[in-house]
Amino acid sequence: MNQMLKLTAEQSIADKDDALEQLTDALKADLRYAENTVNFDDDKLKLIGWSGNQTPTALAPPGQTRQLEAPKQGDGWVFLDLPAPRRGRGEKIKRP
Q1: What is the distance between the alpha carbons of residues 93 and 19, in angstroms, rounded to a whole number?
Q2: What's the pTM value of the predicted model, to 2 decimals?
């Protein structure tokens, strides 16, 4: 019984993933069509809640690594140990 539930759940997840991929592809095609139709005119694209390509911005370089250790190593391999960053999990990275 448990095995049957597991197989049903796995199949449901696979079906959901396939449907999501198809939806994503369709949305990308629709947006590309809209961009081409209005020749990437941002004012017209904003009418559907979209805009053309943005100018890329440079990200700030990461900070210096602290407390990086190599407690184990051998021929052709090394194990590196690095503590979690100070800012903690879940905090958004601030972009310039």
Answers
A1: 31
A2: 0.50
End-to-end CA, the chain: 54
- pLDDT (tens digit, 9 = 90+) per residue, 22-80? 999 999 999 999 999 999 888 999 999 988 677 888 888 877 777 888 889 999 999 98
> Which residues neighbour 40 within 8 Å (Cβ) at sequence distance 6 or greater?
52, 53
Q: Where do the domains of the chain lie?
A: 1-53
Whole-angstrom distance, CA of residue 35 vs CA of residue 51: 8
pLDDT at 31: 92
Beta bridge partners of 81: 69
Cite the DSSP H helix spans in the chain. Answer: 2-37, 42-45
